[in-house]
């Protein structure tokens, strides 16, 4: 059974060092009439590599990859390449990948993989070893190794990732966290026409087997396809409802009598955590985190800043975790919280949900931030993030009869409340405004809000109780403050 060794930590298909993080896997394919080749895939976590900067201010990482296949002391194949990442803006995700195809005769090999951070002059290369076995092709039909796939698209310009007219990006793991809802695989079936005849139809069956080797009925699929010297097989399975457990992906070619001609299998693990089952302070497996956007947030202070700015939209238990647990937590727990916070809000695109919110945080920082408070820490910033931007914003910053105030009106808030208002007041004449009154039931309410707004002429804002119950009033009595409150249009 193929195993992928690792550096410092025992994660399947992971290479990890204190300098950088990379993931390695391989599959064996065959070219009829020519022989077999090993496809070596290495994925580099760009955020863990040193970078250079170009004149436009963009950055790029690069890695030197060396592959040596040997039998005893004899080197059978050698390849050294420099793999360059994309030019990206600082802070963007810059992961990059290498796919190298090495033709080799049948046999058993020792593979030595060495990775070096090109732009880190002080970093030492990291090396690990892997045993690779290439079986003699069957005279009958046989499958290639099964390659798990991250994404694919029709080829426009042939490149290293092209197979059978399709660009295929490998998935370098056999672990499927909750966030991944599809299992995509690619394999090739060889010489089936020698067994079943030229241009004949046969049944291709792909299934998911449980831990006891039994086919799960709802995960069994049958396709009728034609024979050929090389039959490419690229299919997707919806695993969104597949429970946590260890499984086997099984491929079978059957003849017209539905007898099995050839079978191939690949094991994988599914971790499906239902939302209500996951505590907000649970540390997710490193394999799960490695496949998510949160891994690029590896500076503890910077990540804590990002987590703190979630407070305006966090639920009660989440707020308790942010305030009481995460300040003393390890970074893996912080990353887990941050990832699942956004996964709960957008399972299809948690990173997109975060990025959209981050733009709002930047907006409130630019609009409401002060010298001593970040925008999201202010009352106006918190309300903006929690309820959305107001439909109308009545501002009175310079009226000598009033303390500076604003009245925000919402036709509908983010959480579905209709016709709601917030009044903010500034009694210290600084940059910040305090929430004084709202008709949202759980927000601050004060039946003396009009008196307090007018108290500037008496210069006695402290004499007014700022947290009293709401009083009844009328919408149309000629009072300017009430008109602004009830009729902001």
Structural class: alpha+beta
Record field, number of beta strands: 24
Count of alpha/pi helices: 9
Strand content: 35-45%
Poorly predicted spans: 1-18, 460-477
What features would you describe in this structure?
This protein is 17% helix and 38% strand. It has four domains: 1-136, Immunoglobulins (Immunoglobulin-like), CATH 2.60.40; 138-272, Immunoglobulin-like (Sandwich), CATH 2.60.40.2550; 275-368, no CATH class; 377-486, no CATH class. The strands form five sheets. Strands 10, 11, 12, 13, 15 and 18 form a six-stranded antiparallel sheet that branches. The protein is elongated and about 95 Å long. A hairpin with a 5-residue loop joins strand 19 and strand 20. It is of the alpha+beta class and 489 residues long. It has helices at 192-196, 286-290, 300-308, 316-325, 331-345, 350-368, 379-387, 449-454, 480-486, and strands spanning 14-16, 21-31, 35-44, 51-53, 59-71, 74-84, 96-104, 107-117, 126-134, 142-143, 147-154, 162-163, 166-170, 175-176, 182-190, 201-209, 215-226, 230-238, 245-254, 260-270, 392-396, 405-412, 418-425, 434-438. It has nine helices and 24 strands.
Q: Which helices and strands occur, and which strands form pairs?
A:
Elements: E1 14-16, E2 21-31, E3 35-44, E4 51-53, E5 59-71, E6 74-84, E7 96-104, E8 107-117, E9 126-134, E10 142-143, E11 147-154, E12 162-163, E13 166-170, E14 175-176, E15 182-190, H1 192-196, E16 201-209, E17 215-226, E18 230-238, E19 245-254, E20 260-270, H2 286-290, H3 300-308, H4 316-325, H5 331-345, H6 350-368, H7 379-387, E21 392-396, E22 405-412, E23 418-425, E24 434-438, H8 449-454, H9 480-486
